[in-house]
Amino acid sequence: MGTESEIPLLDFRKVNGVTLEEGSEGWKEMSKKVREAFESHGCFLLLCDQIPNDLRGQIFTDMKSLFDLPEETKKKFSGAKAYRGYTANSHVIPHCQSFGIDDALKPDTTENFTNLMWRQGNPTFCETLSSLTSKTRDLSTLILKMIIEGFGLPQQYILDVEELNNSNDTRMTRYQLPKENKDLEIALVPHTDKGTLAVICHNEVQGLQVLPKTGEWVDVIIPPNGYIVLVGDMLKAWSNGRFQAPTHRVVTKGDKERLAFILFTVPKEDMTIKVPSELVDDENHPLRYRPFKYEDFIDFHYSTRTEKGVLEEFAGL
Ligand SMILES: O=C(O)CCC(=O)C(=O)O
Ligand SMILES: [Fe+2]
């Protein structure tokens, strides 16, 4: 089974007065590390103080009460798009239940959600969910800005960052324990994320695995109070394939239930994903992807239902 990961661990915490203020030396140095980690692994483990630990602790307490609601209540939350709304034991996530909330930062979204789940509403959960989503989004924005710095790109590409960072989809997932006669269960099938970035935290029960080029699944060990940040297909395409978008899955083992909170950053639907010319050179980095619209890629993905190599098939040159 999976070996332990050597995924880079980045520490964004203010240590010895080092801050990540935009433009500072600390920020430039960290931007380089972000770029290197995305190039070598397509992900990094993260310790940071942008999100208070008690806030993330609270979400898992609240999520437990959410998942403990009756099935018929949870099913009331249906999503307009694929994999959104409440999903239970589908073929993609065979052993888990999950809530996918589009744009939880829009006014009313979290309130409507909590009012639907609890007849009298649930202001505490509503506040925790909005606040955690908003702070995680700020973290994603910081990381995307660091990418521009890490590549030494002109500031005009901040506009790309804004479009790549257009909306944030929140996912809350409970992974079921393996059946009594099984040591291990694949609870989320292998995939790459289709958007820009994913920031994941969990209730300290591990289970995420990544598939490096060696072809052997590797256990991801997220440090206590830590996160993992994963590159999605759109950021891989925009970076001309310099960043990897790691294939990952979730397995459950042992007797502790895993809860995960994930914030996906997704591009503006009509954004044209176009590789910056600075990231192309004939010798080492020939252009790998044609320009394309994000929404066309998503339509293609849902219509073909292919997982492996979908980006290369759709936009690869
Ligand atoms: O639960 C996790 O750690 C990963 C979840 C994930 O990869 C996803 O929802 O796309
Ligand atoms: Fe994922």
From TrEMBL:
2-oxoglutarate-dependent dioxygenase essential for auxin catabolism and maintenance of auxin homeostasis in reproductive organs. Catalyzes the irreversible oxidation of indole-3-acetic acid (IAA) to the biologically inactive 2-oxoindole-3-acetic acid (OxIAA). The gene is LOC101511408. One of its GO terms (molecular function) is dioxygenase activity. PANTHER family: 2-OXOGLUTARATE (2OG) AND FE(II)-DEPENDENT OXYGENASE SUPERFAMILY PROTEIN-RELATED. The lineage of its organism: Eukaryota, Viridiplantae, Streptophyta, Embryophyta, Tracheophyta. Residues 166-267 form the Fe2OG dioxygenase domain. It comes from the Eukaryota. It holds the Pfam family 2OG-FeII_Oxy. Belongs to the iron/ascorbate-dependent oxidoreductase family. This is 2-oxoglutarate-dependent dioxygenase DAO. InterPro entries: DIOX_N (IPR026992), IPNS-like_FE2OG_OXY (IPR044861), IPNS-like_sf (IPR027443), Iron_ascorbate_oxido_reductase (IPR050231), Oxoglu/Fe-dep_dioxygenase_dom (IPR005123). Keywords: Dioxygenase, Iron, Metal-binding, Oxidoreductase.
